[in-house]
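User: Can you write out an input/output pair for a complex, sequences first and structure second?

Assistant: Here is one pair. Inputs:
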Amino acid sequence: MSEHALPSASAPRVERWTPVSLGFTVALAGVLALLGFGPLLFGQGTIDNLTELYFLVILAIMWNALAGYGGLVSVGQQAFIGIGAYAVVFLSVEHSLSPYLAMALATLFGAAISIPLGAVVLWLRGGAFAIGMWVVAEVFAILVSLDATLGGGTGTSAVLAFNLRYTPEQRLHDTYWFAFAAAAISLAVVFALLRSRLGASLQAIRDDEDAAASVGVRVFFGKGVLFVLAGAGCTAAGAVIVAWQLSILPLGPDSIFGVNWTAKMIFMVLVGGLGTFEGPIVGAIVLYLLETYLSTRMGVWYLVMLGGIAIGVALLLPRGIWGTLQERLNTRLLPVGYRLRVGR
Amino acid sequence: MSALLSVERIDARHGLLQAVREVSLEVAEGETLALVGANGAGKTTLLRTIAGAHRPAGGRVVFDGRDVTRMPAHARARLGIALVPEGRRLFPQLTVEENLRVASASRRTGEWNVERVLDVFPLLQPRRRHRAATLSGGEQQAAAIGRALMANPRLLLLDEVSLGLAPVAVEGLYRSLEGLIESGTTIVLVEQDLARAMRVASRVVCMLEGRLVLEGRADDLTRERVTEAYFGLHARSGA
Amino acid sequence: MSWVNAVVHGILLGGFYALLATGLSLMFGVMRIINLAHGSLALVGAYMTFLVVEHLHVSAYVALLPVLPGALIVGYLLQRTVLERSLRAGELVPLLTTFGMLIVIGNLLQYFFSPDVRGLGSGSIGTASWRATSSLTIPWFDVLVLGVAVGVLGGLHILLRHTQLGRELRATAADPDTVELLGVNARAVYARATAIAVATAALAGVFYAMRSNFDPTTGPTQLIYAFEAVVIGGIGSLWGTLVGGIVLGVAQTVGARIDVQYFALAGHVVFLAVLTVRAVVQAGGFRVALRTAG
């Protein structure tokens, strides 16, 4: 048996950053800085629209974190959206807190609730977890609808929280900034997660949970982290939504606890690219455009279209727009993975 | 006399790994062919390709004059190809009898039925209504072979039937198979035990790393020659 | 309404849930698919029956004659087109596509039938009841539904244990690859399972429409109840679905007895309680396993 020594010049190198990803990250930082100054640069309509885009981005990122990284398909994240919205109303209207403080506290509250909830629900797998979460959402919706102080079945509004302290313009701007910060933080947290050790073990969990467990990956802990993250994120989105649209209802598919939110999250993530980092953002932009230009014109057919596209994408373009592009171009815009460079 | 089974330049892959490379062989009606080779040589993949459980990347499988390469496994079973898969793969929650009777899906009639199978494998008689998961290794293997026979096959493919069985059980199994072989059923069997394979078969082929490296009548080949081909200690020799 | 009345009505309601959940349980048992559109398909059965009743002027019972075979066909085609591909695409994909179907069906129904609430007549049985005692009244229709549920479950039991199709269903559920080697077309078997599931769902949907009002949003709600029945009774057990349905029904009616608005909530609470107990048991077992292994 002869021994072969590899000449050091051709030893494979592992890299995280590539020239493309470096360039893109710089460009991205520029765009973010620009958006950060949004209210000073854009008109009211644009600010309002961008706020919607931001909370859609948050929702997409969170749903993707659960399903794409953790293999957890949840049909009940609207539980947290509703909690976020109602917590803001409760704290700022009933207890006269500043609405933005209320929004931050609501997010913490959502994160806190997700811990005991996760302890119960994460034992479920697959479809059982999906519908289990939906039941949780329904329970929260019913409890809220039974509470007269929260407005009961006819819903409530955050109007009173804002009207006394803020002009409509201020509400618009401050909500924009909160949403922007929440979206940026969400992206940053997920980015850090993916680059961490936990990120690698999540990949293992997603690919084969039992195999991962057998090599010592802490499966339950990994799923738990994702669940709490998604809980906090969706709660923050719900807080933004109530500050944005002001009035909310507890019951019905279109309500703040409604299953249509899940429909939109699934649409964004599937169309954008399940399991990729950039995919949810692409999906959120697509949904945002559809919402802005088509939803009012199509009535009930709008949701039919969303559902139909989601089914079609799941079967025919499973990697979504971004996932497919990523594969074709063999590139990553943001350095979340590793690349193996062999030779030179 | 044309062959019952003709495998022509089959290429089979598992993902990027090439398991079977350009294998061609023929099996005449009534023959017993032993397919030997080390683990990973490609024997199971080849059997599965013949049975239709694995799609080849290239080549043809011709059965009784028909090109069945594109035919799904269940259609081939109805034509008369039956595979006893590696690891038995009985349906654990079904009883022995239920396992046997699933094979009536092949819609083939013939001499094989539940009673006949139990005659040939008497050790199954007392276990007839027991769930397959409760059977011993030897009983499971007998049931798996019986199940394939229930499809009244013209070609029976046996994949490592002695694997994991106690020597006594293997003895019993081959005694039951003797009758089968003598009755003229066409059989291809994969067997790790070279001596037994050469005793039982009329022809032997040997695979190494996906290729056919030796082929010949069992009477003509010595154990040493097969062993050499098995381990690849010699340059490839044809029959 | 007395407590005894509530419990008895709950048991009868459980019969309905068992019938509704049978298809869900079957599809999961054979194919490991949780069909999120199950409730919506049941609702389609109700709406189709409504159309037949409207246009042919027959009773809902007679309308079942064309509707049930139609449901069998729909289920078969559904499996061969969407669900088969979903299964191949990945473990979680069926959840996504059946959810998409839930959204599409619900909104299409809303378009074609408007959000109006409707009901189907249930004939003379529908209003007849037996006044057992001064505080207990048993509606015959609900007894009929429970009877049908037990009959369907029993029929399935016989089908699975004593027929070739049943053997093929169970074998394919256990090992879809090996079963092909024996001449069983696994995809056709799956399609038959889905056909049966959708037909039983449609039947349940029609019964639902006969005892209460329905509208396009009813589908998802019924799916949740059916799912809760399956989980409470134990996923994977057909007769467990009957038990689960009854437990759910009783929880709901007893909850409603306390306060009408607690109907659904009571069921959800029992469901979550069952989940919590199972989680605690699993966690306890997990820890024991860790201790004994370490």
